[in-house]
Amino acid sequence: MLRFVLGVAELTGERVGAVLSACTAVAPPAALEPTAAGAPLNLRHAALGLLSDAVRGVSRTPARARTRWRNMAASTRRRAAPLDRVGKLAARLPGMPRAMSRLRAWRNHGHKQLARWAELGRREQADSRSLAFDALTVLRENMLVRVSESPDVRSAIREQSEGIAVTAVSELRERSARADDRAERTVRRLLGGGRTSRTR
Amino acid sequence: MTAAVGATGQRAGFVTRLAALIADAIILSVALRGTVSLLMLAERALRRFAPPFSLGKLLFVCAPVIASLYHIVFWWLRGQTPGKWLLGLRVVALDGGRVGIGRSAVRFAGYLLSALPFYLGFLWVLGPERRGFHDRLAGTEVVYTRRPGRKRPSPTEREVVPRRYSTA
Fold it and tell me: Any chain B CB within 8 A of the CB of A159?
């Protein structure tokens, strides 16, 4: 179930993204005119602006935090230069190499575990996508079959087509009948009959 | 004008009848050409088992006979060819009765005779009686199947009868 939900969420996100990109590609942004000084305050616009500001702030946060972290690390390195020597001395302490090698082993193990999880997640994502895709395809086909087999829909389509055909044929007959009269009047006028008479 | 009104209804004019003739010609040519092409294709595919003469070519040669049969049989059985049905026309005898096979054959012969002097026999339809040479020869007239100007109500305009669902 979780796999299915994940897949549906992924596919929906993808579809929505595609639609949004298509929309932005099609509709060029309209040029906005600045609001006049004395214009009444629109609360909806204010709420939208607040939301947009918040989203922009959140999206900028990682970059800001990274810069701060870099500055902090640089200052720490400058301040901890004397401590470096202490660290080298500590590395020579008895039992320290063994502890270091164990630490390295743990780190490698952690890396491997992370890689395994990443691989597992990738597979899970692919499985959930294919599961959701299959399920949604079957669902869509079933719905289409149901709709197309529905007697009401069928009768509506039949009536519509019949209506179009009947209207077209009636129109053709009307026009040709009018053309008959017009042709006869023209011929009579050309032959000098003078009197134009309607047959209807 | 009373001359253009026949025993069973208003007589059809030149343009409608010409349109019906063109529709019939299209139907006939499409059907004939399609059949000839299919036969030729079948002969090419079954070259070994094909008959000694070409069925497609035979059909092509017989096209005038088929065209005459098409008109005569349709006039005789239904009083209208598909083209005339499309334009809402019907061929009837002058007294309003159905057209027999003999009258249909005479009418078709009249078609050929009408065409001989520069289609003058057909142009006769433009006269006040709305009858061509072939009509006069066979004693027939072509009338509208329904009076122009009255449209049949479309399915959406018809009265909607609520469907009853049985509770059983």
Answer: yes
- 3-state class (DSSP) for residue B152: coil
* B96 CB-near residues (< 8 Å, 6+ apart): B6, B7, B8
Q: CA of A167 to nearest chain B CA: how many angstroms apart?
A: 7
The CA distance from B19 to B56, in Å, is 29
- The SS3 call for residue A75 is helix
Residues in B 75-94 with any Cβ partner in A closer than 8 A: 86-88
Burial A179-188 (b: 16+ CB within 10 A, else e): bbbebbbeeb
State whether residue B9 sits within 8 Å of chain A by CB. no
In terms of CA atoms, which chain A residue is nearest residue B11? A199
User: What is the rounded CA–CA span in Å between residue B23 and residue B33?
Assistant: 15
Q: Do A199 and B4 touch (CB under 8 A)?
A: yes
- Nearest by CB: B126 against A167, A174, A183: A183
Instruction: Report the b/e string of B44-68 with b at 16+ CB within 10 A.
Output: eeeeeeeeeeebbeebbeeeeeebb
What ipTM was estimated for this complex? 0.74
Test mutation, B87, B154, B165, chain A, max A CBs within 10 A: B154
Q: How far is B155 from chain A (nearest CA, A)?
A: 6
Is B27 strand, coil or helix? Answer: helix
Query: DSSP alpha helices (H): ranges in A27-95?
Result: 43-79, 81-91
- Per-10-residue mean pLDDT of chain B, 168 residues long, equals 69 93 94 87 77 76 90 94 94 91 94 89 90 93 74 50 50
User: Could A174 and B4 be called an inter-chain contact, meaning their C-beta atoms sit closer than 8 Å?
Assistant: no
Q: What is the pTM (predicted TM-score) of this model?
A: 0.53
Residue B9 CA to residue B128 CA, distance in Å, equals: 15
Q: Provide the sign of the torsion angle of the four alpha carbons B94, B100, B103, B105, taken in this order.
A: positive
